[in-house]
Amino acid sequence: MMKQSISAELLKLRHSRIGLVLVVLPSISLMIGCANFYLNQGVLENGWYSLWTQVCIFYGEFFLPILIAICCSYVCRLEHLNRNWNMILTSPVSVASVFFAKLLVVSILILFTQAFFLGLYWLAGTLFSLPGHFPVETIGWSVRGWYATLSISALQLAISLRIRSFATPIGICLCAVFIGLGMYTANLGIFFPFSLLTIGMSALNQDQLTNIQNILFWVANLFFIIIFASISIRRLKKKDILSS
Amino acid sequence: MIKTLGLEYYKIRRKKIWLMITLFLGVEMLWAFMSITRSIAKNPDHAVWESIVFNISSMNGLFMPIISAIVVSRICDMEHKGATWKLLVATNVRRGNLYAAKYICANSLLLFGILTQAVMMIVFGLMKGFPGTPPIEILLQFIVVNLLTTLAVTALQQWISLAIKNQTFALCLGMLGGFVGMTAGLFPGEARHIFIWSYYLDLSPVTFHYTGSTSLYITQPVGAGIVLFALAMTVLFYIAGSIHVSRQEI
After folding, report:
1. Domain boundaries, chain B
2. Which residues of chain A neighbour B179 with C-beta distances below 8 Å?
3. Using CB atoms and an 8 Å cut-off, which of residues 30-59 of chain B contact chain A?
4. Which of A162, B113, B200, B233 is deepest in the core (most CB within 10 A)?
5. B49 with B142: CB under 8 angstroms?
6. pLDDT per position as a tens digit, A60-114
7. What pLDDT does residue B212 have?
8. Chain A contact for B166 (CB, 8 A cutoff)
9. Pfam families in the record, alphabetically (chain B) (predicted)?
10. Contacts of B70 in chain A (CB under 8 A)
11. Which parts of chain A fold into alpha helices (H)?
């Protein structure tokens, strides 16, 4: 049942050209980060790690969360159109599998974006002829960042399933990015999915997380995923769907 | 034309777009006020009206393109969603008038947002006890230049939102615009004048100057050339969008 839901979701993305957005946005954020790094090389002396701070601050803080919001809005947009909710909810698949298929598809898209971004980072570092080897930690940070995006995806999916507008959830995401930044600076990052992404990607601070912080990070994300997923599934089961 | 415009407002009467704009700008203002409060705590010389105008102008570079994209997308997407564009063009109204009505409707909502910002800035300044009375001239200039830049941004957004059904691209453009607006200060002057989104900062009536170890906010005159360039971009985007959308097969 789950497999069928996933293949249906993938089928819906076939001619969407969403891949273009997934490629263009990280490329531009990386280019601006690189330009900033190039212009300030006198101050940024930590090679690969300095380049990571410059490219990641734009990508991890602003681009990635909004990209997630766009993907989530898109996978829900098709259901909001042409009374498709009626078809989905009367089909012989569970509501949970519909939600998790959407979450999985968004997570695959974001995983691709993360891998693409990492590849671009490696390319930029090589072109700048930065001293030393490619820092292997960045792969870990990207994976950790991807894990943090799962809780944001679950939250954005919950919002996009609730709000029929395509654009409003993206605006909400923009506001949440700033709230997340505020919570991160107030050392309350662990309590908000958007701040967890900052922690996961090591966008503002490259210090290694302690064991406790690491465990808290993984547990908090899992907690948010479960909470947002159960709220959405429960709502889809209990509430009437508005379709037009 | 007035009737067409009235119908645009009628269609969005339950969408609460004005409330959405207020909430989004509220978050922006809250962030800016927190940042100014911290800056004043570090340097009491920053407790001036100019600081608030500069901070909001620079944050508008990020927020306004995205909010404009959202507002325009919501106004245009309802025609795509309901497949009502066909109905509209079948009525005895020119397509150009429909396009203009949507443009005026979107910009009037965004003007409401800019005016709300100005009021919030005055309230914050009075609460913080900034010296002197609110600088009406600077605030008026802030409103005019923000509206001018927004007019060009919405012209571009409306073109994309109506021409391409998939709103992902319109929102993506808004996001890129926000990103360019946010990082505008990093580009050299000649390069950033190409991008309309950087005009939120370029046309700001106040700028920030570092002089050795000190920093200060100073008022700057708005260049006529750059204003004309912004106006030219508005006209260009609007006419190109209107012609393209009017001739497009539905």
Report:
1. 2-247
2. 28-29, 32, 58, 62-63
3. 31, 34
4. B200
5. no
6. 888 899 999 999 999 998 888 878 888 888 888 888 999 999 999 999 999 999 9
7. 66
8. yes
9. ABC2_membrane_4
10. 167-168, 170-171
11. 2-12, 18-39, 47-58, 64-80, 84-90, 95-127, 137-162, 168-185, 193-201, 211-238
Contacts A62 to B, Cβ<8 Å:
62, 178-179, 182
Residues in Cβ contact with B68 at an 8 Å cutoff, skipping those fewer than 6 apart? B106, B110, B150, B153, B154, B157, B174, B177
In sequence order, the β-bridge partners of residue B219 are B206
User: How large is the average pLDDT for residues B21-40?
Assistant: 89
Contact status of B183 with chain A (Cβ, < 8 Å): yes
Chain A residues within 8 A of B77 when measuring between CB atoms: 165-167
Site from A58, A83, A109, A175 to mutate, B interface, most B CB atoms within 10 angstroms: A175
**To 10 degrees, what angle do helices A64-80 and A193-201 make?**
130
Phi, psi of B209 (to 5 degrees): -125, 135
pLDDT of residue B184: 79
Structural contact between residues B110 and B67, judged by C-beta atoms closer than 8 angstroms: yes
pLDDT digits (tens, 9 = 90+) for B138-165: 999 999 999 999 999 999 999 999 998 8
Tell me what ipTM this predicted complex has.
0.81
What would the two tokens of residue B19 be?
Answer: 């409330």
Give residue A228's pLDDT band: very low, low, confident or very high (50, 70, 90): very high
Query: Which chain A residue shows the shortest CA-CA distance from B66?
Result: A171
Q: Collapse the DSSP code of B218 into the 3-class scheme (helix H, G, I; strand E, B; otherwise coil) and give the result.
A: strand
